[in-house]
Amino acid sequence: MRKIFYTATASIMLVPFIVQGVTIRDELLLVVAYINIFIPFLTVLGTLYVVWGVFQFIRSAGDEKAVTEGRNRIVFGIVGLFVMISIWGFVNLLVNSLKLPSDTIPKIPLIGSM
Questions:
Q1: What's the pTM?
Q2: pLDDT digits (tens, 9 = 90+) for 66-75
C-alpha cells in the first residue's frame, strides 16, 4: 500500500513539470544550483563545528566525558566536511559528464592568485 501511495504522490508531483515541458536537464541544473548555494555555507558551519570540538577538547583536559564529547565533535565534523566536499565533487562530475553548462560551478579559490 505504501509503494502505491509513494508512486502516486511522485507521479502527481511530476505532472506540473511534464505539462510545462521542463526537461530532466533543467531539473539537474536546478539541483546543481541549489547544491552550489548550500555547500559553501555548510562547509563553513562544519568547520566551525570542528573548531568548537577542538576548543571543547582542549578546555576539558581533566573531564573524561567532555574530552570524549569534544573528540566526537571533531570526528563528526570532519566526516561531515568530507561528505559535503564529496557531494560537491560528485555534482561537478555529473555536470561535466552530462555536458551541462559549467558556469553554475563555483570556481575553487587558489591561494595567492588574483
A1: 0.58
A2: 889 989 999 9
CB 53 within 8 A of CB 77: yes
Name the 3-class secondary structure at 109.
Answer: coil
26 vs 57: CA distance, rounded Å: 46
- Is 67 buried (19+), middle (13-18) or exposed (0-12) by CB count in 10 A? middle
Q: Vertex 79, ends 74 and 85: CA angle to 5°?
A: 125
Question: CA quadruple 68, 69, 73, 79: dihedral positive or negative?
Answer: positive
Cβ atoms < 10 Å from Cβ of 22? 13
Supply the DSSP string of 9-52, one letter for each residue.
HHHHHHHHHHHHT--HHHHHHHHHHHHHHHHHHHHHHHHHHHHH
